[in-house]
Amino acid sequence: MEVVVTGIGLISALGNLETSWRRLLNGESSIQQHQPFPDLPPRPLAPIGLNLASLEQLTQVVVRDALEDAELEVPLSECGIVIGSSRSCQASWEQLAKGLGTRKEERGAIFTKFSASPSFPPSASSPLPGLQYWLDMLPHRAAMVAARQVGSTGPVLAPMAACATGIWAIAQGYELIHTGHCQRVIAGAVETPITPLTLAGFDKMGALARTGSYPFDRYREGFVLGEGGAVLVLESAQLAKQRMAPVYGQVLGFGLTSDAYHISAPNPNAHSAIVAVKQCLDRSHIFPSEINYIHAHGTGTQLNDQNEARLIQSLVERNVPVSSTKGATGHTLGASGALGAAFCLMALKHQLLPPCVGLKEPAFELDFATEPRSDKLRSVLCLSFGFGGQNAALALARISNT
Q1: Catalytic residue among 297, 344, 356, 382
Q2: Which residues share a beta bridge with 169?
Q3: Residue 280 annotated among the catalytic residues of the structure
Q4: Which of 79, 89, 140, 163 does the annotation list as catalytic?
Q5: Residue 108 pLDDT grade (very low, low, confident, very high; cuts 50, 70, 90)
Q6: Continuous segment of H or E residues that includes residue 201
Q7: Taking phi first (over 0 means left), then psi (-120 to 50 degrees means alpha), and beta for anything else, what does residue 298 get?
Q8: Going by C-beta distance under 8 Å and a sequence separation of 6 or more, which residues neighbour residue 63?
Q9: Catalytic annotation on 140?
Q10: CB atoms within 10 A of CB 214
């Protein structure tokens, strides 16, 4: 069963879908120096607004925009929901943790009382204000928010696979339709990763940039955290045709593997990552020579960009255009693959390659699109590689009525 995309909802530090696409083509970057937490030093970040966003708000915005784009109205009771997040409600948990009592016995007494009586509601003056809402802060939060928003009583999934989460979510949505479980699925990922613990952790690893994001550049420094999310309205081609819906493109197939190698570093031999791309191409029934553009993961870290460049060189011709959009949006972690898929679909729609913002001096011999470029795009590939060795590839194609 063919699966097509009839709607896109996206928000990034650049703006909504149309604004982000326009500013991306202009070569603009949303990355600036920020100090959201007074006890941490300033650093380059890509927040959406002056105040840090909430996971619930971003989810509601992208789902609303996707439904409007697809010309759909709620309720959609049979619509599947697959929305993931690698950080999910971590920001809320960190805020809650700050309210804990400093004395061990005080914390223990509160947790004992709470465990004995799950309905126990702490007062506003409690060292654990807000604990009564802990069920609203579990990892599936974004998916459940979307399900309630659209009135879905269909399957609701909340994948989590580090930076490969977005593509994994779209792949699961594709499978729900392809196997006949659903005729329509809202799939993607949302991320609000700018938290003290996330910043401190990545800084300790040496993964964060000091001045900006420069994917595949000789002088790349690391990645820049950014807020954002994107969801796609996936439908069976039959349903889309029946309701005469405009179509961005077709989901051809996907590949998902893991390295089982290291908690953060990718396997230097890239074997599992190569397998993921080959799986994707095989399931999509296309050859490497048929790929017209690759939206790379392109985080700007030393290891990712080096391994990804080698992978691309080993699989496709060197004249295949490549770019990463993280120099413009920042790295939205689990949502980055969903944003990448959305930008790929915009590239198919407009027959334009998005530029690799931030790239000045390429460190690798690939055909990097450093400026917007008109091209005849038929099939494109979107890649994501997450910490822990999560590898994901997604193939999308233009169809005749786009």
Answers
A1: 297
A2: none
A3: no
A4: 163
A5: low
A6: helix 196-205
A7: left
A8: 9, 83, 146, 149, 150, 186, 231
A9: no
A10: 27
